[in-house]
Each structure stands twice: as structure tokens, then as C-alpha cells.
Structures
1.
Amino acid sequence: MLLPQEVIRVKRNGGELTQEQIQFFVDGITNGQFNDAQVGSMAMAIFQKGMATQEIVSFTQAMMHSGTVLSWPELDRPIVDKHSTGGVGDKVSFMLAAIVGSCGAYMPMIAGRGLGHTGGTVDKLEAIAGFNTQPTIPEFKALVKELGIAIIGQTNDLAPADKRLYGIRDITATVESIPLITGSILSKKLASGLDALVMDVKVGNGAMMQNMDDAVALAQSIANVANGAGVKTQAIITDMNQVLGNSAGNALEIIETVDYLTGAYREERLHNVTVRLAQSMLINTGIAGNEAQALEKINHALDSGAAAELFSRMIHRMGGPANLLESPWDSMTKANNMLDVTAPQDGYIAGMDTRDIGLTIVGMGGGRTANDQAIDHTVGFDQIQPIGTKVSKGDVVARVHGKDQAQAESAAKQYLAALSFSEQAVEAPPEIYQIIS
């Protein structure tokens, strides 16, 4: 007879778990036979001792089959999705869904909440009054068929074992484990019935993977497991040594999304990452034959307004307002206090401790320190200036949105402490590092 503590002991001591033991663990997450302390202990044992490739495959498949596995026989075009390992200011999923859906792919996206210092796609959508991130599976499938896209939170039907494990990882310092990340991501994505998947693996001081070796290892792990499961998968390693875009914080990132899709403002780095991921999605689904054809389709989706219109329709059909593009603040709450963060000297922004910026937002209430915690969607930063920006003393390098003056002042000090300055010109890191298939 298997016992939770004995299975934990095997991994704690560096042993390789059998398929039976892994299935027992995943079943225990789902049915409660493993309590929170035991799930956290197993997560820590996996974090410290790792998993062999076959263990990761068995773990992913067990998580995938802990709930419903979708199929889409009624759809006549490719089904594709994207997943990011998480970053600060990463709102790319919204742009990609709108663009790729406008180009003819189906994109059923099952997204996550904030994890550690990184923001969550679902949390950002819930900044919009009325938006329903938890439709039923039949409702989700009907939305995808009707619109081509739908972004929802993880449901109790799809990979329920991961939903519980995800929350426990967030508060037990076990977020950065390659086996746990691989299993978490792919259990949901493989359960979604995809033809193709593009992974955005972040690397840098604001990412779970802070060095290139770890990022490559994770990218290769995901590509190996997903391709082996019959889903055409490409992993693109992108930079997270600074905030992506010019905002970080739930409502503020929705505002930047609206500005991006309507063409009011497109931050260059955010645009470059979005385009590269969209190109891979269109090529891997056969919608475009090469990068040039993909770029032409992407530009048409943006320039014609088709992507913006599709995103607006999705928001409205899922309970949000009909006028998000025209008046986004009508359906979101603003922070009570705004405060400029100003440069303390002349020079150039030379570096950014992106993780600390993310943690500052968590500390303001914009993320979670407990897995059942309600969050403040209003707080965060905008007007963020990137690495390499030339500044004079007193120039605005970011703006804080806080719940009160004291919080805004504290967050401004923390933001400034996360920056470094140089008297000499500084070159920003590249947006794209490597592509792994």
C-alpha cells in the first residue's frame, strides 16, 4: 500500500518515482489524500532533486488526465495556443489571441493567475468589470467556435490536479522547478486539444529562469515532452531583464493592451516579442508559409483593426463591456494615488531589477502572498522607461499607481532602488535569444 509520506521520502532521497507512485501523487492532489503540507513537501522534494525525462512525461500525462481532455472535431482550422513562463509586464497573450485569431487560427487559451512575482493573465482580465474567466467547458467551446478565440482561467474540469498544485507552488518557493513547470504548462495545454503550441520561455532577472542554461533546459524539456505527445511545439527564449512594455499591474496592462491593439501606442520591445511569437504560431499551423508571409498577415490584422475588433468582441461576449476599446476606464477602477518616479541624476538607465519591481507590485496588493487572497487590480506602474533611455535629473522614469499616498511613496522608493544608472550610453538587451523546436 502506498502512503504519501513514503512516496515523498523516495523523491526527497533523490530516487526516481515509478509511474504508479507518480499517479498516486497526482490522484492524491485531486482527491485530497495528500494534504497541503504533503503536496508542498513533494513539490519541494521535486524542486531540490529534479525528475528524469520519463518521470516528467508520466507526471505531465497524469496531470493532464486528472480531468477533462478536450477535442474539437467541429473545428475546421488549426488550433494553436501560446504559453509564457511568466514575467513582469507580460501582456502578450492578449495581443497574440487577437492577432492570430484574426489570421484564421482557433485559439482556446486556458491561462493562469499570478505566480510568485509575476503577473497572471486571468488576474488582468478580472480587472475588467463583469468579465467571466470561468465559463463552463461547453460555453468555452461555443465561444471558441463562434469567435475563434477565448481566454479563460483554469477550471475544475481541466487538469484539476495542476490547479491545486499551482496555488501551493506559489506560496512554497517551488515555482522555478523545471519538472513542475513543464508538467503544469503541458498538462493544461495538452488537455486543450491543440495542434500546435508556442512557448515563450523568459530568461533574466525578472524570470523564473534567471540564466540561459536553465532557460534552454526548460525550453528543451517542454519541446521534448509536447512534441513527443504529438503537439507541434516551438519554444522561443525571450528577455526578462526589464519590464516588458511600459506598464506592470493588472488594470494598467489592460490599458496598454487597448493602446497596442488600437495603434495608439506600441512599445517597441513588446511589439517585437509579440510579432515573433505570432509568426511562429502562423507558420507552425500552416497559415503562413514563411516569416515574410506571417508578418504581412500580422500587420494586416493590426492595421485593419481586425485584431482590435476581435479582442473587443471577446471581452463583450465574456461579460465585459462593449466599449472597452473606446473607454477602457469605464469598466475598470483607477488607483487613488499616482506619483512620478524621477531620475536622481543625469545619465542612462543601465539596469533594472525586474523581480524586485514585480515583488513591489505584490507587496502593494497587486499579487498574492496566500493562494486564496483577493488582489488589488488598480496598483502598479506605467510610463516605464526601458534600459538605455537617456535621462536628465528629474525626468520621469515611471509612475506609481497606489491605493494611498503612503503606499505610492514607498513603491516609488522601491522602484528607484531597482534601477541602476550610468554616465555612459548603455545598450539594451535583445528581445529574442534563441528558438528551440
2.
Amino acid sequence: MDATLQSGPNWNLLRTFYAIAAEQSITKAARRLGVSQPSVSASLQRLEAQLKCQLVYRDSRHFALTQQGGQIYHECRAMFRGAERIAQAVRGAPVGESGEVRYQIISNLASPMLDEILRLYHQRHPSVTFQSEVQNSQNIVRSVRQGRVNIGICLLAQPPSGLCAIRLFREEFHLFCGAEHPLFGRASVSVEDVEREPFISFACATEGAGLEPMSILRSGMRLGSHIAGLSTNMEEVRRMIAAGLGIGILPLMSAEGDIQAGALWPLKITDEPIGANVYLAHAEASALTPPEAAFVNIVQELIALYPDMT
């Protein structure tokens, strides 16, 4: 038997591969590990040479784990989380006292509940660090399903099937126009008034992202036949609406400052509120690290204590 395989692959090479698989990018893995991109690429090549199999399909536009790569990633995840628990036991540290909580979240999500979750968590576990990444809801659900991240905060029309999910609160939306738009200041408008107006859309809502509720809200009001602008970033959508490029849907809470400043105007079409629920989607309890498990527990605790916040 090959001596390398008998003794097992190098621990550092496995850690580098774990970062590559978790980030789905050699560049992001290098940033996470604090090393150069060529160093990460070379480590991946050495590990593939040791294991005598390809772990990653990669080119300039696509990245995916091979079947063997996916299996090794799941083994690495269990191994490194076990090592973290051993280290905590040796130090005698209480569960969740130190470590890291990584999560993905939709952009521009304004919420007193989320603020309180972070405040209370830091108060109880001041040594834990947080790392957040902004993604759209479809990508967040996919990342949690594939184990690239264990916690995601996303906006969904319904709970994600097959995933653990906690409803945090309901996000209310309105249709808005900017100060230069002819409908600015109108007390109410009809569907006919707005259905042919240039529309500012989230980019993911135009790419078949069925999990993104903005596409559902848009189609429900027969909007968006003419797209005048699109972005994956909510702030850029807000900017284009305020600049008068077209009308668009925004969360009410994040737009309140612009409403008061006279930069945006909510267009009232119907008395029926439009919105979607914000969920915390997370991996099974057995897959959560101690800091991640503590995070989920605090979320459940706050929902039980303050149901009005939801």
C-alpha cells in the first residue's frame, strides 16, 4: 500500500481543502486562510496527487466538487468540528464560549430582533467571533443544504422543505416611486396605473429564483413587463428607484428614512399587505458547532420570550 495513503493525507492540506469547499472558491479560501491564492491552488494539487483523484471541477467560470470531493468535504467537516470540541474540553471552556459563527444573510435586512439576537449572544459569549456574508435567499438555502454554511437568514414565501427553519418575523413590503416620478404623492393608484411602468428589480428575481419572494410579489401585481434597472443589492435597487428610473418593491422598514426625507413615496394599490417571512434556516443539530448551536438556542429563547417581535 502507498505509504502516503496508509498514513493519511497531510492535516494542513485537508484544512486548506475544507476552506476551498466551504467557500466554493480558491480565492475566497485564500482570503479566509490568510495565504496567497497560488499557495491554496498548490495545496489542492498536492492533496489530489496524494489521494490520486480529482476533488474539484474548476475553470474560470465554474466551481463544483466531484463526488469524491463532496465525500471528503463532509468527512473533513466532521473531523474539524470534532477537533474543536476536543480543544474546548481540554481548555475546560464552557460549550459555545469561544469559536466562530458563520452565517449568510440577505442584504439590507433591518430588524430589532436580529439586533437583539447579536447583542444577547455577544453578552453571553464575548469570545465568539462572527462572520457574515450577504447572499440572495436562493443561494442561502442552497448553501445550507450543501453544508457550505450551517446558518442562513433568508426571506421566503414558505419554509424551505427538508431544512430546519425558524420563522423570525414577517417583512412587510411596499411598492415605491421616487420624488421625480409622476405618481409621487398620489394617495392611491390602480394596478392599471403601474403595470406598464418601468420596473426596478432584484437581479435574482429575473433569473428564475423561485425562492426569492420579490419575484412572487411582482408577478402577483402584474409588474415588471419593462425592466428599467436591476441589481442583486437592495441598496442599489433603492438608489435607482429614488433616482426616478422606475418603480420597485422594497421592505417598508428599510425605506422609512427615505419616506420621511421625501426621496421615496409608497404607492398604495390595495389594502392587502404584501410581504414574506424571514426565516433562520440551519443544519441539523448534530452538524452545528457549539457556537452555532448556542446561536440557534438564543433565537428560540427570544422568540419564546418576546412573541410580539415576530
3.
Amino acid sequence: MSYAVAALYRFTSLPDAAALQAPLRALCEAHDVKGTILLAQEGVNGTVAAPPASLEAFLAELRGGPLFAGRLDGLELKLSTAAKAPFGRLKVKVKREIVTLGDPAADPSVQTGVHVAPSDWNALIARDDVVVVDVRNAFEVEMGSFEGAIDPRTRRFSDFKAFAAERLGDARGRTIAMFCTGGIRCEKASAHLLAQGFSDVRQLKGGVLKYLEEVPSAESLWRGTCFVFDDRIALGHGLAEIPPEETTP
């Protein structure tokens, strides 16, 4: 049996995040959904999997059902498939942030970088005046990235603040083009740079996953594979699963 996989997030006010934990878990269990979902007062973030019909019904409940009462109708989604179950269990957690940066000024509900469609990304990062930044962690970058992108060499996303202060100061007046796996880290990272006085910050809409889904391999500037946080480990163009022996390094 094949499985449908959804990487999802939405920045929206959820002051009742703690109260949502138990009913959200029950909703997942009712639809045979496994994976990890994080709840915080700033929104929701997660990657989950289920049989295709079950996942479709679950996502419909998130976006239009009574539990979130329309607050997730703009849910950002990246859909892919898995030949076998990519998660062994379900985790629904309440956190301080749905992606931890630790900068109260970085509020994606107030400001983020300009979203760039995958179809326009190649032209942007080919420009001489653009600084391309990979917002992912070092072990992810080792498996694949866009050629010429800066690797911040971070161990965790919260290290991005120090990287920006130490290494991006000279680029404050230039165009910054950033990317991450599914887009959520760029929402926080771009908000952080804008709060620090960077004026032209852009981000790959939908992240690497959307780029690999939409941009033909013959036109792609991506090199290597894309690490994903489930048992598939890595995806390639067309969001195809990559056998472990073919992943890099």
C-alpha cells in the first residue's frame, strides 16, 4: 500500500494551542494519520502521512472543519508519496514556537520576504547582485543544495541569528535569496533579516520540495538530493524517493 505525505504549516493566531492538542490527536487517530505536528500560539507545523483517502479527509478537516474554525484555511501544503509508511507513530506537541528561532521580532504574521515562485527562482539566483543563502542545517546541505549557495554551517535553526550577524552584515544592501526544505524556516529567517534592517529579502515559495516538484530536472539548478525528516530520508526531482545507497554524501 502506498502512502500520501503532507508537509504543512500555517502561521496564524492560536491562543488555544494547548487546548487543541488532545482533539487534534484524536482527529489524527480517526484518520489513521501518523507523523509529527507542532502546535504553538503562532500556528501549526508538521509532516504527516496516511493512506491517500484518509489524508485527504484529514486535511479537509484541518482547513474547513470545526476544530480550527477556518484558521487553517490558508494552510501551506507540500504533498508527496511514500512506498511504505514513513512514520512509525504519531506525535502532537505544544511548543513555544512551531519553528524555533528565538527572536520575538521575527514575526511572519507581520512581515516576511518576497515569495518567489519555483519557475522564477533560477533567474533570480543567477543574478550577480544576489546573495543565495541555504537556511537549512549543515547535515542537510551536505546531501544537496543549489550550487554557489552559502552554507551557514548551522547545527540547529536557532543558530541562524548568529550566522546572519557574523556573516551577512556586508550584504545588508544586496538582494538576499533564501531557501529551505518546505518554506517555513524561510518565513522566520526572512522576518528576522527584515527586522535587522535588510531591505530586499526573497524566499523560494514552497521551498526545495515545491521546486523539485515543479521544475523539470533538465532545467533544474539543484544538485544532489533533498533531506526530509521521515523514514524516506531523501527525495529527488519529481519528489521521487531516493534509495539510501544513492543519497549523498
4.
Amino acid sequence: MMEYESLIALGVFAVICLTAASTGAKYGPDEWYRSIDKPWWIPPNWAFAPAWMLFYTLLAVAGWVAWREGGGSAANPLPAALFVPLALYVLHVITNAVWSPLFFGMHRIDYALIDSAAMWLTLVATIFAFAEVSTLATWLLVIYLGWVTFAFLLNLSVLRLNRDRLPETAPTRH
């Protein structure tokens, strides 16, 4: 049976990931999104919510497993061996949370692509850091990396199809 402190830690990881997911709930497909060009291979809109729910769950469980297997406890919530892995993890979650406001909120497909690249890089760094702590947590993130890679390629394709629709960043002078 799981200890009480471990359940609390799992709850903390779930709240961290749900907080990141909340930006996707606030900023979602709108009229602008429906009007832009998308690649033929994009999944239907209804598929994104369950996919992200699955991947946020994997992300939360991976963080929790790494915390447990890395020696995290109520007495020592952040052992030295976990500082870098969990800092990278939090950085990844932040880059994940920023994507929806950039893409759907600001309609900046280009900025969202930069963020998507940062999301991919921070996830790869987290995977390598977690590999020193937990095999299970590492593999959970590797599964999630497949989705993040797909999302990056999708963002890149949408950018290529809509370069002419990007808002201007600064007024042009003639």
C-alpha cells in the first residue's frame, strides 16, 4: 500500500500537470484556427483533448516515479540527486503551458514553433536526467516524447502552410 506522503506527492505532480493543461482549456481552437490551412494528416480536433489527457497523466506519473525512486520523501522532498532532473521537468512543463497561449491566444504559429522546439529539448534533457534516477520514469517520458515530436512536426507544417497569415511583429516603414 502506498504511503500517505507518496499519495500527496503524486497529487502535487498531478496539480503541476493540470495547471499546465489548463492553458489548453483556456486557449483552444477558435475561428482563426478553423480558418487557417492545416496538413492533411492532422488528427480531428476531438482527438487532442484525450491525447493530451493521456500524455499529461504520463508526465505526472513519470515525475512522481522519479521523485520516489530518487529518494524523495516528506523528510527530504528534494534530494540533491533530484534537483537537476526535477528542475528540467518543471522547465519542460512551463514550456508546455506556454504553447497554447502563443498559438491559439496570440495566433503566433512561429513563436509557438520556437516554444515547441524548447518543449522538445527540455523533454529530451529531462529524459536523460531521469535515466540516472528511474528506468520506469524514463520510459514513460520516451512514450510522451513521441507525441511531442508529432506535435512539433504538426506545428512546423501549420507554419509552412500559413506563413502569409503571421501577424507583423513591428510596423513596416516605407
